[in-house]
């Protein structure tokens, strides 16, 4: 499906109808074991000398359809899906970092990824955390043993922007692998592989699934890099995606382009509206010209995404806000069709110390908002009535 628009790829990506008896919806193959036709065929498939299926943990036709779809959406040669975003992150990191290696990562990003990188010290893998809004900091933090530059843009929870192409150029000069967490942007808004990144990954639990009803992770890249993950950590650690979940992700992706249009426009409208609200100390969204890296976001993103954050000044104000919203939902996670709000410093980033949150620029009164696809005027009315009660 070369040269097809993203909107078309979202609907038809991964299709091989002749392989599935013409079914418009990819079938769910629940089998955990597949029979071989003969000894030579079975041995070749088992040893990955030819394509085929033999054990569910190592491949399934429904998963293959999802992998092909993700590769097409990201512009990669190959892709691989997992049971969760963290399974994809862990597999990608452990495929390319070993004892004695070093990683450079943003100081403000998904807190569980931060904690993973810190925990890797037990295995002799060190990480330097930098202000990723300045791409030059990756070069400054690089060491002779640096193996991975980790990028997350827009970042969690401050929706900060990293200049992807600039980091990729530095990585190429230094011989470092680049991995980008593209969850907040989605491939609709941003395609890191086209900017020189080696691997792009997602928590498919979020926008790709899109309906708060599954847990999954995906990554895409070149054939050789994805194969190293497939036959290394993915095979050994057992983080494989269930075929039923792979089908749900495929179904969610069919409406991804339509949903992202609304996520993008709703979030930008809410951000503009709240910049002048007296109860809001600051608004973080890449669409705003006041955003530190607005111009970089404008150059590397098709749209600015559905995630924004508000600084309400204090932790008490943040708690009061989530207690008073009525249409918005107070919950964790993000990327669903419904608008979800949470006080980041008290929840997802509570695993970081107050000093670490301060260093990452995460204020105690921060509200992370995953803006859904509801009517934007209804959302603004609900947000404003909650703010008036602070």
- Give the second-level CATH assignment, the architecture of the largest domain: 3-Layer(aba) Sandwich
What fold name goes in the CATH topology slot of the largest domain? Answer: Aspartate Aminotransferase, domain 2
Number of helices: 15
User: Percent of residues in beta strands?
Assistant: 5-15%
Distance between the termini: 52 Å
* Element pattern in H and E: HHHEHEHEHEHEHEEHHHEHEHEEHEH
Summarize the biggest pleated sheet. Answer: 7 strands, mixed
Number of strands: 12
* Mean pLDDT over the full residue set: 95
| Number of structural domains | 2
CATH superfamily of the largest domain: Type I PLP-dependent aspartate aminotransferase-like (Major domain)
**Unreliable sequence segments:** none
| Rg measurement, Å | 21 Å
Strand order of the largest sheet: 1-7-6-5-4-2-3
> Tell me, what is the CATH class of the largest domain?
Alpha Beta
Q: What best-fitting shape do the alpha-carbon axes yield?
A: globular
Structural class, from helix and strand content? alpha/beta
| Helical coverage, percent range | 25-40%
């Amino acid at each position: 499906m070369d040269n097809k628009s993203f909107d078309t790829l979202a609907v038809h990506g991964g299709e091989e109808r002749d392989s599935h008896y013409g079914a418009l919806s990819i079938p769910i193959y629940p089998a955990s074991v597949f029979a071989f036709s003969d000894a030579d065929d079975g041995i070749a498939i088992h040893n990955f000398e030819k394509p085929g299926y033999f054990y569910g943990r190592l491949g399934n036709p429904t998963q293959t359809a999802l992998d092909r779809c993700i590769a097409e959406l990201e512009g990669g040669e190959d892709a691989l899906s997992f049971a969760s975003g963290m399974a994809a992150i862990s597999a990608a990191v452990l495929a390319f970092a070993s004892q004695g290696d070093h990683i450079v990562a943003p100081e403000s990003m998904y807190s569980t990824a931060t904690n993973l990188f810190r925990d890797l010290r037990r295995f002799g893998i060190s990480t330097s955390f930098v202000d990723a809004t300045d791409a030059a900091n990756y070069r400054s933090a690089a060491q002779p043993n640096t193996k991975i530059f980790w990028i997350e843009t827009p970042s969690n929870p401050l929706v900060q922007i990293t200049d992807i192409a600039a980091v990729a150029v530095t990585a190429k000069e230094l011989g470092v692998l680049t991995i980008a967490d593209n969850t907040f942007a989605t491939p609709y808004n941003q395609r890191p592989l086209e900017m020189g990144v080696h691997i792009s990954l997602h928590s498919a639990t979020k926008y790709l699934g899109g309906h708060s009803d599954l847990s999954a992770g995906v990554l895409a890249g070149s054939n050789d890099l994805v194969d190293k993950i497939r036959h290394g950590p993915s095979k050994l650690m057992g983080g494989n995606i269930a075929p039923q979940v792979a089908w749900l992700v495929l179904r969610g992706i069919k409406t991804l382009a339509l949903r992202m249009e609304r996520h993008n426009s709703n979030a930008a409208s809410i951000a503009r509206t709240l910049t002048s609200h007296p109860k809001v100390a600051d608004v973080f969204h890449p669409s705003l010209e006041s955003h530190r890296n607005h111009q970089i976001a404008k150059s590397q993103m098709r749209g600015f995404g559905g995630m924004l954050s508000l600084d309400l000044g204090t932790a008490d104000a943040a708690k009061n806000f989530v207690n008073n919203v009525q249409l918005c939902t107070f919950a964790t996670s993000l990327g669903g069709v419904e608008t979800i709000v949470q006080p980041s410093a008290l929840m997802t980033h509570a695993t970081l110390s107050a000093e670490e949150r301060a260093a990452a620029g995460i204020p105690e009164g921060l509200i992370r908002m995953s803006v859904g696809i509801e009517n934007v005027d209804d959302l603004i009315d609900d947000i404003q009535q909650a703010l008036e009660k602070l």
